[in-house]
From TrEMBL:
<feature type="binding site">
    <location>
        <position position="53"/>
    </location>
    <ligand>
        <name>substrate</name>
    </ligand>
</feature>
<comment type="pathway">
    <text>Amino-acid biosynthesis; L-homocysteine biosynthesis; L-homocysteine from S-adenosyl-L-homocysteine: step 1/1.</text>
</comment>
<dbReference type="InterPro" id="IPR000043">
    <property type="entry name" value="Adenosylhomocysteinase-like"/>
</dbReference>
<dbReference type="GO" id="GO:0005829">
    <property type="term" value="C:cytosol"/>
</dbReference>
<feature type="binding site">
    <location>
        <position position="347"/>
    </location>
    <ligand>
        <name>NAD(+)</name>
    </ligand>
</feature>
<keyword id="KW-0963">Cytoplasm</keyword>
<protein>
    <recommendedName>
        <fullName>Adenosylhomocysteinase</fullName>
        <ecNumber>3.13.2.1</ecNumber>
    </recommendedName>
</protein>
<feature type="binding site">
    <location>
        <position position="185"/>
    </location>
    <ligand>
        <name>NAD(+)</name>
    </ligand>
</feature>
<feature type="binding site">
    <location>
        <begin position="151"/>
        <end position="153"/>
    </location>
    <ligand>
        <name>NAD(+)</name>
    </ligand>
</feature>
<dbReference type="GO" id="GO:0006730">
    <property type="term" value="P:one-carbon metabolic process"/>
</dbReference>
<dbReference type="Pfam" id="PF05221">
    <property type="entry name" value="AdoHcyase"/>
</dbReference>
<feature type="binding site">
    <location>
        <position position="340"/>
    </location>
    <ligand>
        <name>NAD(+)</name>
    </ligand>
</feature>
<comment type="function">
    <text>May play a key role in the regulation of the intracellular concentration of adenosylhomocysteine.</text>
</comment>
<feature type="binding site">
    <location>
        <begin position="293"/>
        <end position="295"/>
    </location>
    <ligand>
        <name>NAD(+)</name>
    </ligand>
</feature>
<comment type="similarity">
    <text>Belongs to the adenosylhomocysteinase family.</text>
</comment>
<dbReference type="InterPro" id="IPR042172">
    <property type="entry name" value="Adenosylhomocyst_ase-like_sf"/>
</dbReference>
<feature type="binding site">
    <location>
        <position position="184"/>
    </location>
    <ligand>
        <name>substrate</name>
    </ligand>
</feature>
Amino acid sequence: MKYDIKDISLAEKGRLRIEWAAKDMPVLSLIKKRFAKDKPLAGIRIGACLHVTTETANLMAVLKAGGAEVALCASNPLSTQDDVAASLVKHLKIPVFAIRGEDHDTYYAHIRAVIETKPHITMDDGADLVSTIHSEYTRLTKDVIGGTEETTTGVIRLRAMAEQKVLKYPIIAVNDAKTKHFFDNRYGTGQSTIDGIIRATNRLLAGSIFVVAGYGWCGRGLAMRARGMGARVIVTEVDPLKALEAVMDGYDVMPIAEAARIGDFFCTVTGDINVIRREHFLKMKDGAIVANSGHFNVELDLEGLKEVSTKVREIRDNVTEYTLKNRRKIYVLAEGRLVNLAAAEGHPSAVMDMSFANQALCCEFLTKEAKRLKKTVYPVPEEIDQEIARMKLDSMGIKIDQLTEEQEKYLSSWEMGT
């Protein structure tokens, strides 16, 4: 079995951490039991490009229990947990190609190693796997029945491919499932981003001014958690509806150019490029701390920052100090990559339980339905979303009401009025 990881001797530590994560992933555990019995993925090869974390390891175990052959690479150079990669190789015999801190060339070499296993289903987080297949391995697309996409950034890229008629196989936007983005993006990103910022800096948030760039589900969660830590939160937005919602939620809203002058902490969660640019860095006060929790580090104009700096140094783990020409110092966390994964451990297992349950069930759906699907991006089937929500509630010991026959009839009719 081919693989490329940092150190196989880390496997036992990884196994214990994977076991710990599994204790808070009851939905995935239920799916694993059914998959082990029914083998719905028998004969299917799955190529996955995901953050190599304890939660991802539990998803890989479910897919393998379902009969799939799985190969895994990292979807970000700084998100790999090396002990988890080692455990997947040693204990589950899954080919893993991921090393924390790998350079650009190694990152793409690992993606190509997964592609060369000739997957029937792709599982992506950011669409680098899909885009590499479409640009370098088009001959293999005839054997791919479908794929899934985990994150907002990837869905944006894949929808652009579909609109331009270049997408070669159907993709299910797992990111858009209600049991994914309502929980993973809001509660997961909110908590884990704050966790990453605090681990990297050990700075007090209470009493500070915390600027959140973007008020999508990730931004909502981050703003909520920053306020909960006692920070005064400022939101920057380009969408008038989201900006209005932020105002109605009680946050200050202003352009980034204004927020740059007064913020103590900045974090981007937009999925777009150059959200904080050199002109904004030049306006920041001495000691400002800048992070990104969007999928790619392009949200921060780091080249522009470097050009207006006279000195760059690592002052502590995951903190780079830029001394500007105006002598002020700006601190960038985790090289501008996902601070929640690069400086912390990513989302809590409880929310990834639902996200990865969507991944597993969508793979099963693709094996059954891919032949009737067009080469475009699809939402997660409503019945899968509902099933995951029901299983999560059951695991929490929560009961809910059911519609009576009279209520169902009323909701499906038009004749009855006041």
